[in-house]
Amino acid sequence: ITDVDDTLTDKASDNFGNYWTLTPLQSNNTLTGGNLAFTGPTNYSNYSTAPALPMTGKWYWEIKAVGSVPITSSANWDTYVGVLRTGVAIPSGSQASNANLWVWGNMAKDGSGANGAKHNNSNVPFTPAVNFGNNSIMMIAVDMDNSKIYFGNDGTWAGSADPAAGSNPAFTSSDSSFGSHQVMPYQNLYADSATYNFGATAFAHTPPTGFKALNTANLAAPTVTNSSEVFKAITFPGTGSAQNVDTVGFSPGLLIIKSATSTANWNWVDSVRGANEILWSNAATAESAESTSVTGFRDAGFSVGSDSGSYVNISGQTMLAYGFEAGTSFSESASGTRIASAGKKSSSANFSIAGWTHQTSANYNFKHGLSVTPDFFVIKSRDSGTNWELWHKDMTDTYKRLILNDPGGSGTSGEVTAYWANPSTNADLTSGSPVTSSLLGIQDGDLSGTDAVIGYFWARTAGAIGAGTYTGNGSADGPYIVVDDGGSGFESAMIIIKQTGGSSVTTHYAVNDSTRSTFNPTNAPLFLNDTPGAGSGISLDITANGFKIRDTSATINATSGKYLYMAFAEHPFGGDGVSQAKAR
Q: How buried is residue 183: exposed, middle or buried, by Cβ count under 10 Å (0-12/13-18/19+)?
């Protein structure tokens, strides 16, 4: 079938793309009707959600209530409908106050009761549209561009709201933190049944002007529509003899290679330093020249030698390689307190490799090669045995750093102070961020002498690179995280997770990927800071636009633990004409 009409505002009306449904990953109810209908039991520990809303746009859906379970103890249809933050534990019980919910609650199915209460640690009532009755159609409109939510039923918007005009919303960013979070449709249903309509069938009421059905064809195309051109995870057999590995599909600017089956180092090589120069993210040691390891970069991959050091081509082992495209050279001259830097960057994703010479006379800054602010990066001295320093936008204190090679070592666990400088003033950084869309600030005393230094910088890129945070719940039914790539999320090829916060967090940097685990749950973890081969546990599901935690290990899911993640795409999610990610 060919889409011959791209002039429609709502491209889903062409019957292309995929509509939202409820997800069993986020519900303890039995879903029916193509995962659009469910019945709630007579308790408060039930809920149901759908995939997250896009980060931008205006979206509309409807919910029909069907009173199939008689209520004998109360007239209230104790339901909360609206949106829930992603990346948090799914709430249970009565939702009168919850900082992560923006909902319309306590609907009375017989027309009585406290109809139209809104929540988010407030429980402030607003004027309902009309009394809610059996078979009523609830209407929800969410304006992600302006952080507004509207509720209504049976054709009338509550509180005299007008979503098309942007007036009288039930929620705005001014009375909650809704506007700063990605959210998903949410419902907590008590002793009744309901059916969702995200647009796969005709709506009962006309959506407000400018609001669209939740269909992947209505999403903006991601920045990178073919993520395999900028990142690829592969395995290859180690032989101990020279061989070419041409299954990456492009010439990698950065390669990270490790044995997936035995104890071995994590080898980082890049085209800025040269293929023979190896650093190890599990060690603080200086760079080592290894002439028989990676011997060159090729158009579709790389070459390895006899590997006398047993690093990248170990005989009889399954070798794992992560390749990042960075083929565009850049060079930045010194100016004032800015020192010279040079390196390479990706042609289409926000990834760069920058090299510079450390200065000991004063704090300084340099250009990292991107034109957007990095969301995470790591830097390492090439010449001295100093730590790998990692920074992530969602650290508890962004003026600090994490240690990649030794998260549990003495004096290096948790977030550590004293390393960065203010990129604008060059003063020692004691608050805020060390990085801007062009500069990174470094203190003069925390690297050694006039060492050569290398840095790797990533920023969220729709369809390619994601970075964010989530809160653990300590349950095998863990949180569902939509990858924050600045767009609609993606199906991940590789996910790195690290617990953070405080000064005593010592968990590993857990790595899962879809290359070694081709179906869910993904359960073959490696650790960027440690040498063992793949273990077990640390389980998660990789979904079409994110991942679902399936393990109670503190490495990825301690109760109330704060976790950072970094993700790289296998397939994008959303966009008209884009090859869609699919469930595994």
A: buried
Q: Is residue 496 classed as helix, strand or coil in its secondary structure? A: strand
* For the chain, counts of helices (H) and of strands (E): 1, 40
Specify whether the CB–CB gap between 570 and 513 falls below 8 A.
no
Least reliable range by pLDDT among 49-58, 70-79, 147-156, 371-380: 70-79
Amino acid at 504: S
CA distances from 495 to 326, 492, 509, 550, 578 (A): 20, 7, 10, 14, 22
Q: What pLDDT score does 11 carry?
A: 52
User: Phi and psi (nearest 5°) for 556?
Assistant: -130, -5
Asked whether residue 92 carries a pLDDT value surpassing 90, the answer given is no
User: Which of 455, 432, 428, 440 is closest to 362 using CA atoms?
Assistant: 428
> Residue 554: in which H helix or E strand, if any?
helix 554-557
Residue 285 tokens read as 């040691």
**Please, which residues bridge with residue 104 across strands?**
81, 118
CB of 74 closer than 8 Å to CB of 98: no
Residue 125: pLDDT above 60? no
Are residues 211 and 60 in contact, defined by beta-carbon separation less than 8 angstroms? yes
State residue 89 phi and psi, 5-degree precision: -65, 140
Residue 46: CA count within 13 A, CB half-sphere: 18
Distance CA(341)–CA(208), nearest Å, equals 51
Chain centre distance of CA 363? 33
Q: Is the pLDDT of residue 88 over 80?
A: no
- Report the chain's mean pLDDT, rounded to a whole number: 85
Q: Are 382 and 452 in contact (CB under 8 A)?
A: yes
By C-alpha distance, which of 112, 126, 39 is closest to 82? 126
CA 578 to chain centre: 20
Distance CA 525, CA 321 (A): 15
The strand pairing partners of 571, in sequence order, are 491
- What the block records as the tokens of 422 is 């203010």
Instruction: Please state, in angstroms and rounded to a whole number, the distance separating the CA atoms of residues 345 and 325.
Output: 8
Tens of pLDDT, residues 496-551 = 999 997 667 889 999 999 999 888 988 889 999 999 988 777 899 998 889 999 99
* Six token digits for residue 4: 């011959």
d(CA 309, CA 153) in angstroms, rounded, equals: 69
